[in-house]
Specification:
Elements lengths: L7 E2 L5 E3 L5 E3 L5 E2 H52 L6 E3 L5 E3 L8 H24 L11 E7 L2 E6 L5 H8 L5 E5 L4 H14 L8 E5 L4 E6 L4 H8 L4 E5 H6 L1
Parallel strand pairs: 8-9, 11-12
Antiparallel strand pairs: 1-4, 2-3, 5-6, 7-8, 10-11
Protein backbone atom coordinates (compact mmCIF):
# COMPACT_ATOMS: atom_id res chain seq x y z
CA UNK A 1 0.00 0.00 0.00
CA UNK A 2 1.50 3.35 -1.04
CA UNK A 3 0.82 6.81 0.36
CA UNK A 4 -1.37 9.09 -1.75
CA UNK A 5 -0.51 12.63 -2.85
CA UNK A 6 -1.55 14.07 0.52
CA UNK A 7 1.14 11.96 2.26
CA UNK A 8 -1.42 9.86 4.05
CA UNK A 9 -1.69 6.13 4.00
CA UNK A 10 -5.21 5.12 4.37
CA UNK A 11 -5.57 1.79 6.02
CA UNK A 12 -9.17 1.63 5.18
CA UNK A 13 -11.17 3.70 2.78
CA UNK A 14 -14.63 4.79 3.46
CA UNK A 15 -16.58 2.88 5.99
CA UNK A 16 -15.97 -0.81 6.68
CA UNK A 17 -18.71 -2.78 8.12
CA UNK A 18 -17.66 -5.43 10.65
CA UNK A 19 -21.13 -6.53 11.24
CA UNK A 20 -24.46 -4.98 11.35
CA UNK A 21 -23.92 -3.40 14.76
CA UNK A 22 -20.22 -2.28 14.49
CA UNK A 23 -18.93 0.25 11.99
CA UNK A 24 -15.32 1.54 12.03
CA UNK A 25 -14.41 4.66 10.18
CA UNK A 26 -11.20 4.46 8.15
CA UNK A 27 -10.01 7.93 9.22
CA UNK A 28 -9.31 6.59 12.77
CA UNK A 29 -6.46 4.37 11.42
CA UNK A 30 -4.55 6.82 9.27
CA UNK A 31 -0.87 7.35 9.87
CA UNK A 32 0.78 10.62 8.99
CA UNK A 33 4.08 9.88 7.27
CA UNK A 34 5.41 13.38 8.09
CA UNK A 35 5.29 12.53 11.84
CA UNK A 36 7.12 9.29 11.20
CA UNK A 37 9.89 11.08 9.31
CA UNK A 38 10.26 13.68 12.08
CA UNK A 39 10.53 10.98 14.75
CA UNK A 40 13.05 9.06 12.71
CA UNK A 41 15.14 12.21 12.18
CA UNK A 42 15.07 13.01 15.89
CA UNK A 43 16.16 9.48 16.79
CA UNK A 44 18.99 9.75 14.26
CA UNK A 45 20.16 13.04 15.82
CA UNK A 46 20.20 11.47 19.29
CA UNK A 47 22.11 8.45 18.00
CA UNK A 48 24.74 10.61 16.31
CA UNK A 49 25.07 12.78 19.41
CA UNK A 50 25.58 9.70 21.62
CA UNK A 51 28.23 8.29 19.28
CA UNK A 52 30.02 11.64 19.18
CA UNK A 53 29.99 11.91 22.97
CA UNK A 54 31.50 8.43 23.37
CA UNK A 55 34.16 9.19 20.77
CA UNK A 56 35.13 12.45 22.45
CA UNK A 57 35.26 10.73 25.86
CA UNK A 58 37.57 8.01 24.52
CA UNK A 59 39.87 10.60 22.96
CA UNK A 60 40.07 12.59 26.19
CA UNK A 61 40.70 9.46 28.24
CA UNK A 62 43.45 8.35 25.88
CA UNK A 63 45.11 11.79 26.00
CA UNK A 64 44.88 11.77 29.82
CA UNK A 65 46.54 8.33 29.91
CA UNK A 66 49.35 9.47 27.63
CA UNK A 67 49.88 12.59 29.73
CA UNK A 68 50.03 10.50 32.94
CA UNK A 69 52.56 8.11 31.45
CA UNK A 70 54.64 11.03 30.23
CA UNK A 71 54.66 12.74 33.64
CA UNK A 72 55.49 9.49 35.46
CA UNK A 73 58.27 8.85 32.99
CA UNK A 74 59.70 12.30 33.61
CA UNK A 75 59.58 11.71 37.38
CA UNK A 76 61.31 8.33 37.14
CA UNK A 77 63.92 9.79 34.85
CA UNK A 78 64.49 12.67 37.26
CA UNK A 79 64.84 10.25 40.18
CA UNK A 80 67.32 8.13 38.27
CA UNK A 81 69.36 11.19 37.36
CA UNK A 82 69.40 12.34 40.97
CA UNK A 83 70.34 8.89 42.24
CA UNK A 84 73.48 8.92 40.15
CA UNK A 85 74.86 11.73 42.30
CA UNK A 86 72.92 10.89 45.46
CA UNK A 87 75.22 9.95 48.36
CA UNK A 88 72.25 8.52 50.30
CA UNK A 89 72.27 5.06 48.80
CA UNK A 90 73.63 1.63 49.47
CA UNK A 91 74.46 -1.00 46.86
CA UNK A 92 73.70 -4.67 47.37
CA UNK A 93 75.38 -7.39 45.37
CA UNK A 94 72.70 -9.48 43.70
CA UNK A 95 72.88 -13.19 42.96
CA UNK A 96 74.22 -12.60 39.46
CA UNK A 97 76.87 -10.18 40.68
CA UNK A 98 75.26 -6.94 39.52
CA UNK A 99 74.77 -3.94 41.76
CA UNK A 100 71.20 -3.40 42.92
CA UNK A 101 69.80 -0.44 44.85
CA UNK A 102 68.72 -1.86 48.19
CA UNK A 103 68.18 0.79 50.85
CA UNK A 104 68.89 4.46 51.42
CA UNK A 105 71.90 5.19 53.56
CA UNK A 106 71.17 8.62 55.00
CA UNK A 107 74.23 10.80 55.43
CA UNK A 108 75.23 11.34 59.02
CA UNK A 109 74.33 14.79 60.37
CA UNK A 110 77.18 16.90 61.62
CA UNK A 111 76.38 16.25 65.28
CA UNK A 112 76.17 12.47 64.87
CA UNK A 113 79.91 11.81 64.79
CA UNK A 114 80.42 13.91 67.92
CA UNK A 115 77.59 12.09 69.72
CA UNK A 116 79.05 8.69 68.85
CA UNK A 117 82.49 9.79 70.01
CA UNK A 118 81.09 11.02 73.32
CA UNK A 119 79.17 7.78 73.81
CA UNK A 120 82.32 5.75 73.20
CA UNK A 121 84.29 7.87 75.67
CA UNK A 122 81.56 7.42 78.28
CA UNK A 123 81.68 3.64 77.83
CA UNK A 124 85.46 3.65 78.09
CA UNK A 125 85.27 5.69 81.31
CA UNK A 126 82.72 3.25 82.79
CA UNK A 127 84.90 0.25 81.92
CA UNK A 128 87.99 1.93 83.38
CA UNK A 129 86.14 2.70 86.61
CA UNK A 130 84.87 -0.86 87.08
CA UNK A 131 88.22 -2.36 86.14
CA UNK A 132 90.14 -0.14 88.53
CA UNK A 133 87.78 -0.69 91.47
CA UNK A 134 87.42 -4.36 90.52
CA UNK A 135 83.66 -4.05 90.65
CA UNK A 136 81.74 -7.20 89.69
CA UNK A 137 78.35 -8.86 89.78
CA UNK A 138 78.78 -9.71 93.46
CA UNK A 139 78.12 -6.03 94.17
CA UNK A 140 81.38 -5.37 95.97
CA UNK A 141 80.93 -1.63 95.57
CA UNK A 142 82.53 1.14 97.66
CA UNK A 143 80.26 2.40 100.42
CA UNK A 144 80.21 5.90 98.91
CA UNK A 145 79.28 4.65 95.43
CA UNK A 146 75.67 5.02 94.36
CA UNK A 147 76.11 3.45 90.93
CA UNK A 148 76.69 4.89 87.48
CA UNK A 149 74.80 5.12 84.19
CA UNK A 150 75.29 6.49 80.68
CA UNK A 151 72.81 8.91 79.19
CA UNK A 152 73.12 11.34 76.30
CA UNK A 153 76.81 10.60 75.80
CA UNK A 154 77.61 11.30 79.46
CA UNK A 155 78.74 8.98 82.24
CA UNK A 156 76.95 9.93 85.45
CA UNK A 157 78.65 8.69 88.62
CA UNK A 158 76.53 8.77 91.77
CA UNK A 159 78.34 9.35 95.07
CA UNK A 160 77.06 9.87 98.61
CA UNK A 161 79.05 13.06 99.32
CA UNK A 162 81.02 15.84 97.68
CA UNK A 163 84.19 14.60 99.33
CA UNK A 164 83.82 11.27 97.54
CA UNK A 165 84.13 12.85 94.10
CA UNK A 166 87.92 13.15 94.41
CA UNK A 167 88.20 9.38 94.82
CA UNK A 168 86.73 8.78 91.41
CA UNK A 169 88.29 11.79 89.75
CA UNK A 170 91.63 10.35 90.76
CA UNK A 171 90.80 7.35 88.56
CA UNK A 172 89.13 9.09 85.61
CA UNK A 173 90.84 12.47 85.69
CA UNK A 174 89.06 15.56 84.37
CA UNK A 175 87.15 13.63 81.75
CA UNK A 176 84.72 15.98 79.94
CA UNK A 177 82.12 13.23 79.49
CA UNK A 178 81.99 12.37 83.21
CA UNK A 179 79.61 14.10 85.62
CA UNK A 180 79.09 13.46 89.33
CA UNK A 181 75.79 13.41 91.21
CA UNK A 182 75.48 13.41 95.01
CA UNK A 183 72.77 10.97 96.16
CA UNK A 184 71.35 9.96 99.53
CA UNK A 185 71.79 6.20 99.41
CA UNK A 186 74.72 4.06 98.33
CA UNK A 187 74.21 1.17 95.95
CA UNK A 188 75.22 -1.30 98.66
CA UNK A 189 72.59 0.11 101.04
CA UNK A 190 69.79 -0.12 98.50
CA UNK A 191 70.77 -3.60 97.37
CA UNK A 192 70.88 -4.83 100.94
CA UNK A 193 67.36 -3.54 101.60
CA UNK A 194 66.02 -5.28 98.51
CA UNK A 195 67.79 -8.57 99.19
CA UNK A 196 66.64 -8.64 102.80
CA UNK A 197 63.00 -7.92 101.95
CA UNK A 198 62.93 -10.59 99.25
CA UNK A 199 64.48 -13.17 101.54
CA UNK A 200 62.04 -12.44 104.38
CA UNK A 201 58.93 -12.53 102.17
CA UNK A 202 59.85 -15.08 99.51
CA UNK A 203 57.10 -17.44 100.73
CA UNK A 204 54.48 -14.70 100.98
CA UNK A 205 54.77 -12.80 97.69
CA UNK A 206 55.68 -13.43 94.09
CA UNK A 207 58.93 -11.78 92.98
CA UNK A 208 59.50 -11.55 89.25
CA UNK A 209 62.46 -9.15 89.19
CA UNK A 210 64.22 -6.97 91.74
CA UNK A 211 67.35 -4.85 91.98
CA UNK A 212 68.68 -1.27 92.15
CA UNK A 213 67.27 1.66 90.17
CA UNK A 214 70.47 3.71 89.96
CA UNK A 215 68.95 6.71 88.17
CA UNK A 216 66.26 7.19 90.84
CA UNK A 217 68.54 6.02 93.69
CA UNK A 218 66.12 3.39 95.01
CA UNK A 219 65.37 -0.31 94.85
CA UNK A 220 62.66 -1.89 92.72
CA UNK A 221 60.58 -5.05 92.83
CA UNK A 222 58.28 -6.40 90.13
CA UNK A 223 55.41 -8.60 91.29
CA UNK A 224 51.86 -9.58 90.38
CA UNK A 225 49.06 -7.02 90.49
CA UNK A 226 47.35 -8.55 93.51
CA UNK A 227 50.56 -8.41 95.60
CA UNK A 228 51.39 -4.71 95.17
CA UNK A 229 49.25 -3.25 97.96
CA UNK A 230 50.12 -5.95 100.50
CA UNK A 231 53.80 -5.68 99.66
CA UNK A 232 53.81 -1.93 100.30
CA UNK A 233 52.14 -2.54 103.68
CA UNK A 234 54.88 -4.99 104.63
CA UNK A 235 57.65 -2.78 103.29
CA UNK A 236 57.14 0.18 105.60
CA UNK A 237 59.66 2.98 104.93
CA UNK A 238 62.11 1.01 102.79
CA UNK A 239 63.49 2.86 99.80
CA UNK A 240 61.92 0.46 97.32
CA UNK A 241 59.29 0.95 94.62
CA UNK A 242 56.95 -1.91 93.70
CA UNK A 243 55.77 -2.39 90.11
CA UNK A 244 53.03 -4.64 88.81
CA UNK A 245 54.09 -6.90 85.98
CA UNK A 246 50.56 -6.62 84.56
CA UNK A 247 50.88 -2.82 84.30
CA UNK A 248 54.34 -3.09 82.73
CA UNK A 249 52.99 -5.43 80.03
CA UNK A 250 50.15 -3.00 79.24
CA UNK A 251 52.60 -0.11 78.86
Amino acid sequence: MKPNEDGVIRLLEGITEIDDDLVIEADQFTVNTDQLRKRKKRDEIFRVAAISFCAVSLVLAFRLLLNTLYVDGRKDSSKNDESQNDPWKVREQSANGSDVNNTIDYPEPEWFADAVAEQEKAVEAHELLFETLKLNEKRDYPDDFGGDYIEGGRLYICVTSEDSIKNYRHILGDNPVVEYIVVKHSRNEIQQQVDTFVEEHKDEFVFYTYGVDVINNRGFITTSDDCVAKMYESMGTLNIVVNSEDNIKEE
